[in-house]
Amino acid sequence: MKVLSSQENIHQFRNEIIALSGEDASNCVQCGKCTASCPIALEMDLKPSQVLRYIQVNSRKPVLECATIWLCASCETCSSRCPEGIEIATVMDTLRKLAVEEGLATGQEQIVAFDEVFLDSIKRHGRVHELGLVLRYNMASRKPLKDAHLGPLMLRKGKLSLLAHRIREKAKVREIFRQSRRFLRG
Amino acid sequence: MTESSQDKNIRIMTYSEVAEVKGFVGNFEITIRRKPRYIDETKCTGCGECIEKCPTKAANEWDLGLGIRKAIYKPFSQAVPNVPVIDPEICRYFTKGKCSVCSKICQAKAVDYDQKEEFITEKFGTIIVATGFDQFDTSAYGEYGGGRFKDVITGLHLERMLEPSGPTGGHVIRPSNNQEAKRVVFVQCAGSRDEAKGMPYCSRICCMYTAKHAILLKDHVPDSQSYIFYIDIRTAGKNYEEFYKKAQREAGAIYIRGRVSKIYEKGDQLVVRGADTLTGEQVEVEADLVVLAAAAVPRDGAKELAKILNIPCDDYGFFTEAHPKLQPVESVTKGVYVAGSCQFPKDVPDSVAMAGAATIKACAILSQDELIIDPKIAHVDPELCSGCLDCLEVCPFDSIKAEVVNGRRVASVVQSLCHGCGNCAAVCRTKAANVRGFSDDQIYAQISAPFSAIEEKSIEGAQ
Amino acid sequence: MSVGYYPGCSLESTAKEFDLSFRAICKGYGIDLVDIPDWNCCGASPAHQLNEELAFALPYRNLLKAEEGKLKTVVSPCPACYSHLLHTHKTVGEKPQLSNRLAEMVGRVYQKSVTSKHLLDFLYRDIGIERIQQGIKKPLEGLRVVSYYGCLTRLPGVDIDDAENPTMMDEIVAAIGAEPLDWSHKTECCGASLSITRTDIGLRLANEILEAAQGVKADYIAVACPLCQSNLDMRQPDVEKKYDHSYNLPLVYLTQLIGLALGIDIKDLGLDKLVVDPAPLLRSKGLR
After folding, report:
1. Is pLDDT of A82 > 90?
2. Are residues C159 and C114 part of one domain?
3. For chain B, N or C: smaller number of CB within 10 Å?
4. Both A97 and A16 in a single domain?
5. CATH at residue C244
6. CA of C123 vs chain A CAs: smallest distance (Å)
7. Interval A7-35 mean pLDDT
């Protein structure tokens, strides 16, 4: 039985999200327009409006562990249509970072892996080396031959460089990475 | 309306509007603009031959464009008086100097193209405002087609279709191809409860009228299916909840909890994309017709009318009542009453109740020769007044006027309008303005009276 | 006229033809495109998904480099790049806390002097419909084109006419002599950000968009985003296979269409780099 009154502060999660993102989930009346607008709602476990609901009732773990926050494509359709003006896509971003920080990002682990490989490419070259990205990601996700049919096609059309384009101030970018903290706090 | 028009104590002035209001309760001097209908009301018999023969057509405002009218027309079939009006913007006589068939054909010789706008000024004791509401322009919602889709209509359009003597003869049809609509989607809160793009408030009437539409639709089109997208169903009224259940149980309407995100055209049908928050799914409905329950907003020109009547209104244009709980039919300005949806959207029984209340309160004023008012109202001593008129600036009820007394400009309180709030007294530098009984000296006297009694007693005690 | 240019990572590889065609038409209009010196990746989606400070710092460095290069205005063909530059510029102006932190991380203070523009804005307002019309040598008559905006119109702070029913691209399409068609999926997300990790979703969304375009009998889909183009073009054969349906709908960059109308050579516009070949239709309509 979920006893709501047993929680010390039922607004804790909601307050945390306000502090990190500026968005107040309490403003949501659960109209469902975000869920209705989301192009990826079909594949999501929690729908966008449900994510907002879970924040409202202080249900932290299910949200941080869900697939939804990773499947969100940041298309901002929900944010642009919310009648209360809530930036839902921003909330999703905040939840992603919280999930990773707390080691709870189990919803779509391959997407976290992809993000990390992508950022690593930027860290090393200053720009993304697309071929390198795909190869390393495929290895990490244990699907070495995925999309292999596209490789030769893209190479033939001169749309895939074998070598990475490197910027001059690579060290500068590496320094930026070293200094970056997950959240802009305090 | 016909009954009213025949009552000897009621004078109906149609096609007219209030242009200026001077004076105050019991003594309003009102100027009314009477627009020319180009028909002599005293001669016209209402036979309608002119309308039949008129060659010019236009979209009918009453039918929201679903039907047509002529350049000479009666706004709706039961219009009072039973006299047509000519629309000079499209009438061939007015625009090109041609035609004039109506004039030629009129046996009563009632057509008068030279009729002019008239202003009449008369004295009135009280004013009741009941200007009603309009529908929010739903073309603001680009995601619903932005007004481009013929088969996306509003509740009022459906009302016109459902009427047996209406533009579609009582048939619920798809405006795009005139085929009967079978799969009808109703979208509640189209413009209401929307802080971002519409009105933040709930328009109160739509849950009920949509349930009504679903019931009537089943009547008119027995093999139809209604899909109603809602956020909350508000049925706070006598028999309202039972009515809503009837829409579901008897008319088979399916209620889906969730806003509609998008409506688009696919081939010759509409696709409505929404959500069912209760099952947690995104859903789609392929529809013939979509009816938007548009938010109720004040009539166009309500804010301007408020200025003319000297009554306050809120940001949306709804006229402000004197007290939200205890004085719902009085405006802040004495002698001006409000009734119906011009104060805020409401259903028929509430409007009728308000109309009755406003009328009896107005009658209370009219039935007296003198008005008894609260004595705790302000007064400006012309001897002390410097004529700065700061009090006039701060008076929320517009009850201070500038006057010339002994060659000097001074402020003067209109007693019947003053509410005794004391703003003028607070702001007056020369202590000329005071609420009667509450001048500074009088208040000091009130304070020192009990203290001097205590003082006396303690001196006595000490002795 | 000289303007700053931020190509972004994809325009160097999978969207090479976008870069080629934009440079070609700018040359035709006498516009000097000046690349931001030593620009870095804007961070795309991964940065703002995993690290807030990084998500601002990467675009911040680009804005600084633009200032260094005395570039007052920067055009970004990629909507995501544009969005990150804009968002960083705006937030730095609004939050001193962020501004200080970024200056600390990157080592210099951004003077907030750079105006970011997205490609459509630049074409529509800085070049303008009139100038586009005047330069036309080969109007694309008889070509039925749907304009696909993707999520561009919903980016926070974007300068666009209407988020739900934009017409900027449609007007440009009309200006170059083609027939812009109204359709239902102008601003529907294509799911490109999931194209690699959840290819199934990318294919589903691509299929819906292609289906809608085919439904109005479009010849081409005009695009202004490298990711949208890639998902709908490079993956089109995969979509056709998965959904057992033939589309053969070329995804042509708006800049390529403009280039065609300006009479620029097909090779210089990179038209041969598109996976679904637009050339046969051009030949059959006598436009090449």
Report:
1. yes
2. no
3. C
4. yes
5. 3.40.50.11810
6. 23
7. 97
Where chain B has pLDDT below 50, the residues are none
Do A176 and C61 count as a contact with CB atoms less than 8 A apart? yes
Q: Is A138 a residue whose pLDDT tops 80?
A: yes
CA distance A132 to chain B (A): 37
**Which residue positions in chain C have pLDDT lower than 70?**
none
Query: Do C199 and C56 fall within a single domain?
Result: no
Q: Determine what percent of chain A is predicted with pLDDT higher than 90.
A: 89
Which pLDDT value is given to residue B463?
61
Check CB contact of C162 with chain B, cutoff 8 Å. yes
Q: Are A92 and A51 in contact (CB under 8 A)?
A: yes
Domains of chain B and any CATH numbers: 2-125 (no CATH), 133-297 (3.50.50.60), 298-366 (no CATH), 378-441 (3.30.70.20)
- Give the model confidence (pLDDT) of B94-137 as tens digits: 999 999 999 999 999 999 999 999 999 999 999 999 999 999 99
State the DSSP string of B180-214: BP-EEEEEEEESSS-TTTS-SS--SSHHHHHHHHH
- C185 within domain boundaries: yes
Task: Answer whether B146 sits within 8 Å of C165, measured CB to CB.
Answer: yes
How does pLDDT run across C160-194, given as a tens digit for each residue?
A: 889 999 999 999 999 999 999 999 999 999 999 99
Task: Tell me, yes or no, whether A162 and A140 share the same domain.
Answer: yes
Picking from A41, A49, A83, the nearest residue to B197 by CB comes out as A83
| Residue B192: other Cβ atoms inside 10 A | 24
Instruction: Tell me how far the alpha carbon of residue C236 is from its chain's centroid.
Output: 19
Containing domain of residue A16, as a range? 9-101
The CA distance from B143 to the nearest CA of chain A, in Å, is 9
Query: Are C277 and C153 members of one domain?
Result: yes
What H or E segment, with its residue span, contains residue B71?
none
Whether A2 is covered by a domain: the verdict is no
CB contact under 8 A, A184 and C273: no
- Spell out which residues of chain C touch residue A154, defining contact as CB-CB under 8 Å: 13-14, 234
Query: Which chains are adjacent to chain A, needing at least 3 Cβ pairs under 8 Å?
Result: B, C
Cβ within 8 Å, pair C14-A154: yes
* ipTM score assigned to the predicted complex: 0.95
C273 CB neighbours in chain A (<8 A) are 157-159
